[in-house]
Amino acid sequence: VKKNPAEPEFHQAVKEVLESLRVVVEANEEQFRRDALLERMVEPERQLKFRVPWVDDNGQVQVNTGYRVQFNSAIGPYKGGLRLHPSVNLGIIKFLGFEQIFKNSLTGLPIGGGKGGADFDPKGKSDREVMAFCQSFMTELCKYIGADTDVPAGDIGTGAREIGYMYGQYKRIRGLSEGVLTGKGLSYGGSLARTEATGYGLLYLTEEMLKLNGQDIKGKTVAVSGSGNVAIYATQKAQQMGAKVVTVSDSNGWVYDAEGIDVEALKEIKEIKRERLTEYKKYRPNAEYHEGRGVWSVKVDIALPCATQNELLLEDAKTLVANGCIAVAEGANMPTTLEATEYLQANGVLFAPGKAANAGGVATSALEMSQNSERLSWTFEEVDSRLQRIMVDICHNMADAAERYGFKGNYVVGANIAGFEKVVDAMNAQGIV
Ligand code: NDP
Fold first, then answer.
1. 278-299 per-position pLDDT tens digit
2. Which of 66, 74, 160, 231 is the most exposed place for a label (fewest CB within 10 A)?
3. In a shared domain, residues 262 and 151
C-alpha cells in the first residue's frame, strides 16, 4: 500500500490472491522468501503511460491518458484487453493485469498477463472521433506490442469497431499483417466464436460447477448484470441451456423481464443501435425498467455479474442468500467485493471467481492467435468445442486444487492456486528475471 498508494482495486486483487496462496507459501517458505517470488509477482515487468491527443468533431484537441501494463511473461507473450472508460487509471489497469496472469495460466494456453486502456469514453462519440482516438492511441502503443510479445484485445468500451481502427493503424505504421490484436473482424483474421466466447464460457463453467455439486442449470432462474458483450452472450447461452434470465442492466438502470430477456432485442439495442436499456420496453412492453441499481434484489437461483468491478456488494449478497440463490459466477472482473464473496461462501453459495469463470474470452483469443499463426480459420463448432473443453478443465482444476490443499468447494482458493502453480514453476525455471 505504501509503495503503490491510491490503487485500491490493485490492493484488493492482490490481497485476495495472496490470502489464497498462504498454504502454498507456508509449504515452501524459505524458497519464497529467498527468491522474493511474491515480491516479483506483484511488480509488473513494465508499465507504460502515455499521452493520447486527438481532434474532436468541433476541431477541439482532446487529451487522454493511455496505459499498457505488461505484468508477467513467464508463460508466454503478454495477453489482456484494452479498457476504454472514463474511470480508467493505473490502479485499475494493474488490478486487471494482475488477475490476467492467473486467468491466462488457468486456460492451459501459453499466454502471459497484461492489460491496458485509456480514460477515453466512447459513449456519445461519432465514428470519426472514435477512429481519431484509436489511431492516436495505437500510434504510441504499436512501439511496444507484437504478435510474439504482447497481444491486446477488447474489454469494456473496446469492441470490434475499436479493434478494427487500432489494427488498421498498427498495420499502417509497422507494415505487418500479424495477429497483434485479437477480437478482430472475421474478414481480416478474427476468429469465429470470439464474440460469444466470454459469455458462453461463463455458462459452460457454471453448468459444470453445478453438475459437480449435484445440480442442473436447466429450469433455473438467473439474474445477469450488464448489457455489454459478456452479458449478452451469457444471457443467450443460459437460455439455450434451458435457464431463464430475467434481468440485465447498464450504468443508469436495469430491466426486469419476468418472461425472460429477449436476446435479439437486446442485441439490436446494444450492438446495432448503440442505445440505452430504456429502449427495451419498446420491444417488450410487459418488462419493467428501473433507474439505479437493483438487479440483485430479484429472487433468482443463479447470479451472473457481467458489468464491472465491485458491483455486487455485501448487502446484495445478503439479499441473494435470503432469496435462496445457490450459485454466483463472475462474468466481469472482480465484480463481487471481498466481504460479499466471503458472505456468499459462508452461506453455502457456490462461487466461481472471474479469473476462472470469464477465462473463455482470453482462451478463445489465444485460439485466434493460433489460427493467425497457421493462417487458417477454424469453424465455429471447432472453436466452440475447444472453448467448452477448456472451461470444463478449468472447473475441474480449480475444484481439484482447492481439495488438494484442504479447501474443498472453495473455488476462489482453488482458482488462485491452480493459476499460480504454473506461473511460479515457469518463473523458477527461468531464473531471477
Ligand atoms: P462492455 O463495454 O461490452 O459492457 C460493459 C457493461 O457493463 C455495460 O452494460 C456497461 O453499462 C456496464 N458498466 C460498465 N461500467 C460500469 C459501471 N461503472 N457501473 C455500472 N455498469 C457499468 O464490456 P464487456 O461486456 O466486454 O466487459 C464486462 C466485464 O467483463 C468487465 O469487467 C470486463 O473486464 C470483463 N471481461 C470481458 C471480457 C470480454 O471478452 N469482453 C473477457 C473477460 C472479462 P454502460 O453501457 O452504461 O456503460
1. 999 999 999 999 999 999 999 9
2. 160
3. no
